[in-house]
Write a structure and sequence with these properties.
Layout (H helix, E strand, L loop, with lengths): L2 E6 L4 E6 L2 E8 L7 H19 L6 E8 L5 H11 L7 E6 L9 E8 L11 H4 L2
Parallel strand pairs: 4-5
Antiparallel strand pairs: 1-2, 2-3, 3-6, 4-6
């Protein structure tokens, strides 16, 4: 069984890859003094980095769960989400209000993504080898 853990920390890994699927841990903003829109943008940058390290990107997101400390932040979170989202590749998504572990966190996002298929490399012709 091949399991790859990305960005391991004391209690969790930022992402885990298994069977061509990437499981993201809940991501929270590094800058907690910012509002919900800026925290969401920060989290989405972190998600981009984790997906990149796993070998995929946001267009392969299958499902996303968003936790808001206050549903009053729904519009602000959506502004950052809409600016980031590839409209041609929308994942399934749920958004709920939750009491987050750190009161300074306004948003937490987790998700599941697929790895892109690995395509075989085209064979090189003899002609290109001697050009």
């Amino acid at each position: 069984m091949n399991i790859r853990r990305i960005a391991p920390e004391a209690r969790l890994s930022g992402a885990v890859v298994h069977n061509a699927t990437v499981y993201l841990a809940g991501q929270v903003a590094l800058e907690t003094s910012a509002g919900a829109e800026a925290q969401t943008a920060d989290i989405l940058r972190q998600i981009d980095a984790l997906l990149n390290e796993a070998g995929t990107d946001k267009t392969y997101l299958l499902s996303v769960q968003i936790f808001l400390a206050d549903l009053a932040d729904f519009a602000a979170m959506n502004r950052a989400w809409d600016a980031w989202l590839d409209a041609r590749h929308k994942p399934a998504r749920a958004t709920v209000q939750a009491r987050l572990a750190n009161p300074a966190w306004r948003v937490e996002i987790t998700g599941i993504a697929a790895l892109p298929p690995i395509l075989p490399r085209p064979a090189q012709s003899n002609e290109s080898q001697f050009a």
